[in-house]
Amino acid sequence: MSGFASHWFLTGLAVSAGAEMVLFLLTFVVARAVGRWNVVDVTWGTSFAAVAVTSFAWSLQVTGDSTGRRVLVLVMTVLWGIRLASYIAWRSRGGDEDPRYAEMFQKARGSHSWYALRVVFGPQALISWFVSLPVQMAMYERGSPGPLAWVGVALWGVGLFFETVGDAQMSRFRNDPTNRGTVMDRGLWRYTRHPNYFGDACVWFGLYLFAADRWPGVTTILSPVAMLYFLYYKSGKGLLEKSLADRRPGYRDYMQRTSGFIPLPPKR
Predict the structure, then answer these.
(1) What digits encode the pLDDT tens for the residues 16-50?
(2) CA 231 → CA 12, 147, 207, distances in Å?
(3) How would you label 77-100 residue by residue, b for 16+ Cβ within 10 Å and e otherwise?
(4) What is the pTM of this model?
(5) Dihedral sign, Cα of residue 149, residue 155, residue 159, residue 165
(6) Which of 139, 159, 165, 221 could be bridged to 55 by S-S, CB 3.0 to 4.6 A?
(7) DSSP element (H, E) containing 21
């Protein structure tokens, strides 16, 4: 059977939205209990995995030869999400509040809890659900993956490589006391200032191409574009570089000689 299971997709959207709401509300409760709002960063990666699992379970009601497609998109999304969540949890273990959140809540008026729900937890739940629309749609597409889907898998693999290797290189750099106060400009970081964010973008455009292999998936193009926007202009590159340029000696020079996003040979 071919075609798109539109009925199950539309009802599945509501189910996945409910799962997101529950997950972020639970994270909010945990954040209040431990006194650190940055625990939501761990939930960010986990939330995509939760959407994928929820959508996969709901899509099991769809008939047709699409099991391989659904399992593949499930594995890609869960692997990416759990890797990211595990890395952030390991990196922030035993630490204090993230400076970004500390600065944000210093400016907050009124109840910090209500501010957190309105500005942090609610928007992140909505963004995560919206960005994951290609994954959700791919779960209800029938038929085996075609050429465009396999291009998407390859792009996803490139993204996962850049994220995983970039994070590992940065971890080793930070754990070496001799590097304290210096700028990481080795390995993948020699060619892009943000191999992890570049990897994120590749992953989500890869998942989009996987969904776009069938007609309805083409309509989810705004989802990876939204992810790219936040990675490049908002909570990712834009916010981080503003902070690093002010407090890290040599970072402005690093910015001048190193590509800001797409890996390129460094300038002399």
Answers:
(1) 999 999 999 999 999 999 888 889 999 999 999 99
(2) 27, 28, 16
(3) bbebbebbbebbeeebeeeebbee
(4) 0.91
(5) positive
(6) 139
(7) helix 6-34
